[in-house]
Write a structure and sequence with these properties.
This protein has eleven helices and eight strands. The chain is globular.
Length: about 210
């Protein structure tokens, strides 16, 4: 499973990239607004750090405006992927952008039917928001599993990008289910490294070394 970092913070991106585990970046207007930076400039800065896919989102909800925004985003760097919401106008835009050779990440997906439509329109990625589904008392991981079955049934090329990942358990289960990508905040990636037995074992090894060789 590929790991995408869900952030617009350059220090987080640089740090995680040094670990050698970051395959791409997902952003949105909210994340970039937190950085007090121009939207397009921040995407450009990220593209100079990360060579993998970088998702930048349109803010329009009309087809023609989505296409114009998407073209501007795609011109920022070769690895920009355009995030499009799964709405009727969005489906038209996904279909057109696919014809134009512009990669798309279909966002705000909350059902398997939406994921099916996105794949039929040629989306590069589908982003089911599993954490937000959990928030309303449903099972976000079940949605990831359902999409995996449907995509495998029909050999769709669209990649499942598990979004709204909240914790290491989400990561573990998405990997078991077969999500192609998991995107998560830096805080979750840091949690993946941690285990109390690792800390205990390391402390003992260091203590034993000091006793034997100091």
């Amino acid at each position: 499973m590929e790991f995408f970092l869900d952030t617009a913070n350059l220090e987080e991106i640089k740090t995680a990239n040094q670990w050698g585990i970051v395959d791409g970046i997902t952003t949105n207007p909210t994340l970039i607004a937190k950085e007090n930076e121009d939207y397009h400039k921040r995407l450009k800065d990220i593209s100079q750090i990360i060579k993998g896919p970088i998702s930048g989102e349109v803010i329009s909800t009309k087809y023609e405006e989505m296409i114009e925004e998407a073209k501007k985003l795609a011109n920022i760097a070769e690895n920009i992927v355009v995030k499009i919401p799964i709405i009727e106008e969005g489906l038209k835009a996904i279909n057109k952008l696919t014809e134009m050779g512009i990669k798309t990440n279909v966002t705000l997906c909350f059902s398997a039917n939406q994921a099916l439509l996105a794949a039929k329109c040629g989306a590069t990625y589908i982003s089911p928001f599993l954490g937000r589904i959990d928030d309303i008392g449903q099972d976000g991981l079940e949605l990831i599993s359902d999409i995996r079955i449907i995509y495998d049934n029909y050999n769709f090329d669209t990649k499942i990008l598990a979004a709204s990942i909240r914790n290491p358990y989400h990561v573990y289960q998405c990997a078991k289910i077969g999500a192609d990508v998991g995107t998560m905040p830096f805080s979750t990636i840091k949690q993946l490294v941690k285990h109390p037995l690792t800390d205990i074992g390391l402390a003992k090894f260091l203590d034993d070394y000091k006793k034997a060789f100091s």
